[in-house]
Amino acid sequence: MSYSFYDKALQLGKCFVHHKQVPFDVGYRWGRTFLQEAFGLSSHQWTLTMFERYWHHEDLECWVEAFIVEHKPLSRSTQRRFFWNQYFTLNEATLDPRPETEGLVQLVLNEASGIHNILDLGTGSGCIVLSLLEALPWVQGVGVDIQEKALEAAQKNALILALDQRVQWISGNWYENLEQHGFKKNSFDVIISNPPYIASSQWSKLPLEVQRWDPKIALDGGEEGITPYKVIIPGAKEWLSAKGLLVLEIPAYSCTELLIFLGKKHFSKVSLVLDHFDRKRYLRMRS
Question: Could you say which of 27, 54, 87, 273 would form a disulfide bridge with 17 (CB–CB 3.0 to 4.6 Å)?
Fold first, then answer.
């Protein structure tokens, strides 16, 4: 009897259950994900090929070992992550984008009429602004990040997606270098950000996969986890156009009311939006 892709997924699932102490459905899902990544299989392609004969993939075994021994996420081994509709290149300076962050893209697309330019603060790999530019072919974008190495990944992703002529990358901390690059106040239709929002005291409690492989600067939001919002929200009032939109990802389980209060100090319309798991995940603001 031949050994199928499905059999391999089961084997990997049992391995993950043993070493990672997770339920079997989680272990199996991880095993399937590793196989799909190794062989470039979409979910539909997996359904069609899962019972076909499995053949050895040398990188796959290395990725599995790194995940078990070093707590290295698959996306860090492959240096890419699927986000929205595309794969994005990652490096050591970029946050590994989470599925929840796709909700930011959807919120902007829901109100795409009248948008001509987008400012993405803390852009990292550029996945947010580039996903929006691909979906809105008339829009220009700006991505800002304090880490030059992160901007290298963003530039590479823009080139791969043939969006490099529609986006500008700026090295800097939030808004501080916009003016010296020729941008004027009240000129952006959308400001969007997934800023660091983990309280500093919580860092040691995060999974090792995060502590070891995600850049701390992209996650540590200061003592309460809201330090970046104290800059981004009031600054947005200065940089947004008259009817501009500010969309932020926020911590799902803490400081929600404080962030809403901060938003209402600067914007007349502030709404809290839930993610697919009904968690308080996004803030949407307009003047």
Answer: 27
Helix (H, G, I), strand (E, B) or coil at 270: strand
Task: Please enumerate in sequence order all residues whose Cβ is within 8 A of that of 49, keeping only pairs 6 or more positions apart, or say none.
Answer: 5, 41
Q: What pLDDT does 42 receive?
A: 85
Per-residue confidence (pLDDT) for residue 76, from 0 to 100: 96
CA dist 275 and 221 (Å) reads 21
**pTM of the predicted protein model:** 0.91
- Structure-token pair, residue 151: 């901007």
User: Cβ distance 132 to 142 under 8 Å?
Assistant: no
> Tens digits of per-residue pLDDT, 127-137?
999 999 999 99
**Helix H or strand E encompassing 24:** helix 24-39
Beta carbons within 8 Å of 51's beta carbon, 6+ residues apart: 4, 5, 6
Q: How confident is the model at residue 187 (pLDDT cuts 50, 70, 90)?
A: very high
DSSP-derived 3-state class of residue 124: coil
Query: Environment class of residue 265 by beta-carbon count within 10 Å: exposed (0-12), middle (13-18) or buried (19+)?
Result: exposed
Structure tokens at 257: 């009311």
> What whole-number distance in Å separates Cα of residue 182 and Cα of residue 46?
48
Rounded mean pLDDT, 25-50: 92
In this structure, is the dihedral angle defined by the CA atoms of residues 116, 155, 123 and 66, taken in order, positive or negative? positive
